[in-house]
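Ops channel
N.P.: pipeline sanity check, posting one input/output pair.
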């Protein structure tokens, strides 16, 4: 059944694929497959020890983080973070998956498919760009860094969605496009009362409707932004205020 068939084997991946894996059965972590058994993805640099390879000293350097730094695996450049603190890394598939499974994020999903998915962070109605453009964006962002990580407005799913589509919100007050963040946003105080069945029946319709409203392919406030112009696009709000 297509609704549950997004699981893929590493051998089935194609360059430019947007994939995700479940972490602690709670949330999805996303990345872009760039070939040679590696993915480029974004992590929260504050929650995960920042580890980058110093070309000068030819050694791995930790820049802090709450958790103990991880030892890079035997794969060449696994864990490489070229812009220290950016959170944008290249990682081998095994380290990305950890003990979980791999799933392919679905693009050009129907509205029915989008709403039918119980959890956010697995599909969008948006159309993806060709693989070479996707890989160019991911590689460029590994080399140059991306917008600062933010759990709600700019997380690993936002990073992968941008790589796949080049789309960003033109709304200065709202940048985030990831469906799992919108799912958290959609949970209101009144959704958290009553027994589990009551909570589900009140929260689920609101979650679906919010997810549909904020879906990258259905939103009206998104624009295509070239990866080379990303930093100036992101600075718009500050420039706006400076002009006042
Ligand atoms: Zn690895």
């Amino acid at each position: 059944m297509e609704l549950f068939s997004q699981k893929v084997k590493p051998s089935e991946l194609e360059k430019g694929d947007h994939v995700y894996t479940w972490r602690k059965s709670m949330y999805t972590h996303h990345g872009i497959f760039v070939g040679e058994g590696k993915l480029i993805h974004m992590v929260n640099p504050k929650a995960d020890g920042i580890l980058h390879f110093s070309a000068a000293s030819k050694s791995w350097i930790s820049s802090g983080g709450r958790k103990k730094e991880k030892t890079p695996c035997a794969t060449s450049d696994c864990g490489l973070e070229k812009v220290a603190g950016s959170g944008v890394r290249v990682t081998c598939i095994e380290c990305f998956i950890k003990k979980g499974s791999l799933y392919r994020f679905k693009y050009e999903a129907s509205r029915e498919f989008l709403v039918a998915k119980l959890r956010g962070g697995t599909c969008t109605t948006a159309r993806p760009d060709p693989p070479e453009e996707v890989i160019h964006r991911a590689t460029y962002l590994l080399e140059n860094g991306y917008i600062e990580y933010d759990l709600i407005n700019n997380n690993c799913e936002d990073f992968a969605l941008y790589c796949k589509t080049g789309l960003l919100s033109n709304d200065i007050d709202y940048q985030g496009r990831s469906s799992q963040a919108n799912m958290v946003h959609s949970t209101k105080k009144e959704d958290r009362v009553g027994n589990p069945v009551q909570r589900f029946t009140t929260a689920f319709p609101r979650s679906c409707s919010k997810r549909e409203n904020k879906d990258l392919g259905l939103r009206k406030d998104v624009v295509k932004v070239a990866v080379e112009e990303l930093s100036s696009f992101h600075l718009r709000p500050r420039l706006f205020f400076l002009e006042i």
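N.P.: looks fine end to end. The pocket of zinc ion is lined by residues 73, 75, 78, 91-92, 94-95 (CB under 6 Å).
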